[in-house]
């Protein structure tokens, strides 16, 4: 049997944060380090497909945020603490500077890390984020698009959403919701099922705390002004059919002094799942150019 490519040789390990919290990590591939921040908050790493796509170009460093997935189930659940955890993972793997890729909530976490530690970030890749609008004006459109995207399953989703759920029902609720994040209704359920397999349980305490703090940060700080001082090369990647309206990210794009933006026409909120070739091309080209 031929030897598997090196980018498929994934090592799993735990990293200790500076307060002793055990964070699950996995490393794969060869090239400049790319630290991946998953979305949620309250979810777990789902970047196995990204690690495979980019394995020939980068050394991907994946991790489960504290309290989530395979990491230790403990707080505190604060953005500053999560930023510190990103730094602990970076240090553990010996990277003086890393490229950061964040998706959805993870895009905001990656941005917050870059704002706190710009000298430690070689580049920032901001995927399917929701921008820096303090009034969250995108949310009404998101909720309308979500209901439309769930389609015929909307009644069941609402019924589950309005009551306490068993772990099995919690997974069903998430899968029904995640279907709306994909463009083609024929393949959406399969994509959503893969995101939820294995099912590691959503940490709703973490989600509520981090979301509330993130909203306060946007209200209490002039985030566009902070971004104008960030000289880190940044790539914004959107799926054209994301149910979170893409105009939400416009003010962030205008604020960053060194930014490129690419919209993948056939993709939704998880662009690497629906346009893997396009996602691989734009990310690999950007990281390669920054590293050269």
Automatic annotation (TrEMBL):
The reply on keyword Hydrolase is: yes
Q: Which InterPro entries match?
A: AB_hydrolase_1, AB_hydrolase_fold, AB_hydrolase_sf, Peptidase_S33
What's one Pfam family the UniProt record gives for this protein?
Abhydrolase_1
Keywords, ordered alphabetically = Hydrolase
Q: Which SUPFAM superfamilies match?
A: alpha/beta-Hydrolases
The residues covered by the AB hydrolase-1 domain are 32-270
Gene3D superfamilies with a match to the protein in the record: alpha/beta hydrolase (3.40.50.1820)
Top-rank taxon of the source lineage equals Bacteria
Protein family per UniProt: Belongs to the peptidase S33 family.
Kindly provide the name given to this protein in its UniProt entry.
Answer: AB hydrolase-1 domain-containing protein
User: Which species is this UniProt entry from?
Assistant: Asanoa iriomotensis
